[in-house]
TrEMBL record:
Highest taxon of the lineage: Eukaryota
GO molecular function annotations of the record: ATP binding; phosphoribosylformylglycinamidine synthase activity
Pfam families, per database record: FGAR-AT_N
Alphabetic keyword roster: ATP-binding, Ligase, Nucleotide-binding, Purine biosynthesis
Listed name of the protein: Phosphoribosylformylglycinamidine synthase N-terminal domain-containing protein
One of the protein's GO biological processes: purine nucleotide biosynthetic process
Cellular component GO terms held in the UniProt record: cytoplasm
Claim: ATP-binding is one of the keywords in the record: yes
Phosphoribosylformylglycinamidine synthase N-terminal domain span: 130-222
């Protein structure tokens, strides 16, 4: 019974609690580099905006605060500042798995109201998903990949986990511009969530995984002609 309870707890941890909480509290006292650890002072949480769903922004989550910044761009792989640290290196690869939705529908409604109030009333709808960025020392076998999917997917919604972004399918819609916002950890630092997730993966025999980070992705539907998501790079 204790072993079964431990497995359930591990799966629940990897699946995350962000569907119930939009803004998790900052608890970590220290930020960790990939190859060491340093101390950082806390500052505001940044956002970077991009209409390219394939771009993973190098911005910070609540757990790893840095300077605030935001950007909208179309077909431009640009960052607001010079931070270009990457999660992978020359001897590792990164696999991305996507799961939707990030938050429940009722929470999405409340978030949309907040976005319309704080950012722009031209944003008329939004959809969410989360991305698991998994760094590997070597390729996973098909059996181990199924174990990884089992850890990350919802028990009763396995079809909502995939290797391709669910939001990319929604990017083209008549009469609307779309903007994808992705918020994740600064990739030069390892979060405490990643450390715990890797420990769970190792306990399940996934020894190839050495890091796993989550990012939150939001697809915003903007009225056509409003000036957002129209190919001009601009700040919100």
């Amino acid at each position: 019974m204790a072993a079964a309870a431990a497995k359930i707890t591990a799966v629940d941890f990897l699946q995350g609690s962000c569907r119930q909480s939009l803004f998790p509290e900052t608890k970590s006292r220290h930020s960790h580099r990939l190859w060491g650890s340093i101390h950082r002072r806390r500052t505001a949480v940044p956002l970077r905006l991009s209409t390219r769903g394939s771009i993973i922004s190098n911005s910070s989550r609540v757990l790893v605060p840095v300077r605030p910044k935001a950007l909208i761009s179309d077909n431009v792989s640009a960052l607001v500042d010079g931070d270009s640290a990457k999660m992978g290196d020359s001897q590792s690869k990164v696999v991305h798995l996507f799961r939707c939705p990030l938050i429940q529908e009722s929470a999405s409604v409340e978030l949309l109201k907040l976005v319309q109030t704080k950012i722009s009333n031209q944003i008329i709808a939004l959809k969410t998903e989360q991305c698991f960025n998994v760094r590997l020392d070597s390729d996973l076998s098909s059996e181990k990949f199924q174990v990884l999917k089992w850890l990350l997917q919802e028990t009763y919604e396995p079809e909502n986990l995939g290797a391709e972004s669910f939001l990319d399918e929604e990017r083209q819609k008549d009469g609307f511009n779309v903007v994808i916002v992705e918020v994740g950890p600064r990739l030069s630092f390892t979060t405490t969530w990643s450390a715990n997730a890797v420990s769970i993966c190792l306990a399940c025999g996934l020894t190839e995984i050495n890091r796993m980070e989550r990012s939150r992705r939001y697809l915003l539907y903007v009225k056509a002609g409003s000036g957002c998501g129209n190919g001009r790079r601009s700040c919100i």
